[in-house]
Amino acid sequence: PHLKEAARNNKEIRLSAVCNSTGKKADEVARKWGVSYVTNDYRNILGDKNIDLVICATRHSSHAKIAEEALKLDKNIYVEKPIALNDEELDRVIKAGQKSKGRLFTGFNRRISKHFIEAKREFQGVAPMSILYRVNYPFSEKDHWSYDVKEGGRLIGEDCHFLDAFQFLFGSRPKRISGVLIPPAGVVVHEENVSVNIEYVNDSIGTLFYSTLGSFRLYKEYIEIYGAGK
Prior knowledge:
alpha/beta
């Protein structure tokens, strides 16, 4: 919707193409948003000289590959989180980005929400700080593709949002990480119920509490920020 609004307000912006593994879904999206053409091969989009910006919202295991290829072709690219599943993939994307005329943007959306921007402003320059971030997410689709180890699992695919929020608020590099996990057994199906503590170079501490054992009636996210008497 935001892209369509941008195109409506600026005649130089045009939604050009959409790619999906199945033609039917791609055709539905094309008709809804008025794009020029559809394809089931993302390389057709990367190779289109008329396309300046690519949005990658595929499954996690393909993010690094598509981002690297797009940057090598000097495309601007928005990649949904996570940008990579391991250090090797991430290194390749970074190297491609350093040589590219295109720009890379990763879809960590907490740091651009008005609430986090206001929190950042309130605690700008404060150190040390202490943050507790509680996530209650009793996700019912236990066979969802995001649980697949090949896709990074929930720890990489979901928790990266909250760890990036720490990074944004603290403005410091992590120096030590520790955590505990409830192992899968009985009602616990996957490795996702965790408590993670991160110590930062500026002596701040962030604690992520992520649970799927609660109720949907409780809000998904809750964050407490402490520092400078606030």
